[in-house]
Amino acid sequence: MEKIKQNDAFDVLKATMAIMIMVIHIVALNRLGILGTYIFPILRIAVPIFFLISSYLFFKKIKLIGRYGEQKKYLNKTVNRNLMLYLSWFILLSPITFYIRNYFSHGVLYGVITILWNFVFGSTFIASWYISALVIGLTIVFYASHFFSEKAIFWCSVICFFFCVLISNYGELGLVQNLVWKKLRLFPILWTPHNSFPAGLFWIVAGKRFAEKDDFFWFGKGKQKYILLFSLLALYFEQGLINFLHSSFTNDFYFMLMPTCLAIFAWVLHVVNIDVKNAKTLRAFSTITYCLHASFAKIPALVLLYLGLSKSTFAMSLVKFVITLIFCVIITKIILNLEKCRGWKWLKYLH
């Protein structure tokens, strides 16, 4: 089977995005007031970029395989690999997860149902929703592509994207509260679609487009600079509008993430092509850091609490961030060295 030569820029980008996601989850930006509010928009490109890279590489491989039967085998291989990643981290982080989630406070049956629900539609260990969303999204888009037109799939994914934006940064608007959130709260277990598989569908479809059409959202190097600049300015203008409307329920999704992330990804594909000596290490670091950081950060938070220090101040959140980042780097090095040893090969499932 033909192999794809991966652009090492993807690994640098993913490692950078993983650190940005750490900032979102650990650093108390809300303590910075209006300044913190305006830091969030640029940080929110991280998850879409993760989806775009994963989808692009998957569908690039699918395009090379050609035969439908072999394509399904590759999909199954990808799904199984991600499920093993999920299960491995779920087991390792289960003491922290069960402590945080308190799953069985309403009985064993309710706890089991909640875990299964969160596995499919949300998160068990913190931020794990991305892995589930990627698995479900790749599967939906792969099979839908054989039954529906490309245009129909694209516009359905755009509708999902707009829906996630509305319930996220515009979720406090009266119309959205009445028409959407009142319905979502009828679920026996809370479902937040902006942290579930609908949130990834547009980016997965876009990643597929990039894999199949080299010039998707590419307008030439000169024009692309202006499109990227305009998109970033529009993203921050949207943040100002959200502040004016006081409409934000959560700040996960912005309308202007669509052109911004597409422009960034197209730029990386067409302009940035680098060879990095430690690309595989960066690749492992990005996955391990994404899965580990938010759960591990609860440990220094408890230590700070034990020492009588406020864990919620901006300064203390920076301390947590630095400790967590150092820990993730060390753990990545340990895993990459240990997995070469006999009896420790299972560690490869962690990245």
UniProtKB/TrEMBL annotation:
Keyword Transmembrane helix belongs to the record? yes
Residue ranges of every copy of the Acyltransferase domain listed in the record: 8-332
The transmembrane segments are 12-32, 38-59, 79-100, 120-145, 152-171, 186-205, 226-247, 253-272, 284-308, 314-336
Which InterPro entries does the record match to this protein?
Acyl_transf_3_dom (IPR002656)
What does the UniProt keyword field contain? Membrane, Transmembrane, Transmembrane helix
Gene Ontology MF term list: acyltransferase activity, transferring groups other than amino-acyl groups
Q: Does the keyword Transmembrane helix apply?
A: yes
Q: Name one Pfam family in it.
A: Acyl_transf_3
Name assigned to this protein:
Acyltransferase 3 domain-containing protein
Organism, scientific name? Pediococcus acidilactici DSM 20284
